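Objective 1b. Sequence-to-structure analysis of DUF5020 family protein.
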Amino acid sequence: MRFDLLTSLSCHTNSSSQKLALLKPLSMAAVAIAALCSMSNIHAKTFFTDTSVSVLYGDDYELVEDGELTTVTLEHASAHDWGGVFFFVDRNQGADDIENNRFRETYGELSPTFKIATFNDSFIKQVNLAATYEFGSNSTGFDQDNYLVGIGADLNVPIPGTTFASATLYHAFNDNTDDDQQITLTYGWERNNFVVDGFIDYSFNNDDIEDNIHINPQIKYNLQEVLGIDNRLEVGMEYSYWKNKYGVDGVNQNSPSALVKFHF
């Protein structure tokens, strides 16, 4: 959900080694998620699993050539008796610049949670040990590997239609900036084929960059019933509000994007 690209704004190269660097984090993450899924299927009871691919397009992104960005996202979420796994990887592609170069980036997160305690008839349903591995690289030569550890809670929000809600406090061991802390909120709601979900990240206490907050909801409509198909097909929009994007003081992003999402 959060990545530090501040140092990438001044470097531009196109070597073959950088192309390999773009693929390395993606392959590492794919191996990790496959291993986790295999372990969970063998040794644990699975309550829920969902895998999807989505395409986003917007033309008002900050710190991107002409503001234009197309993103293809592979996403997986599953819940088990021991905890859960959330994983996504983005492939971002910008518009051509004056020299016909095109910004490309791979960014992903692998976030397992491990159940510590559960509660009945309580606002807090479950307390989790939480971790996140953030990885990414782009065509400017920038790359990163950040590691986050913390404590989180699954919440019982008394709003009809709520499918999930959580709050987590992390300490982030950052690759390219000073360490900091992060609060992450996630939520999901669905009723009459309308779906609203997303996250809020607030990163603070970093001596190298400014505190920043990223609010990122998706508003979608599920066409599965209308089209009479076996899988969920959602269309709608994503809105990205990011104050001090990447920790850059005064760079504030307000960007809507068109969205199509297909669930396997």
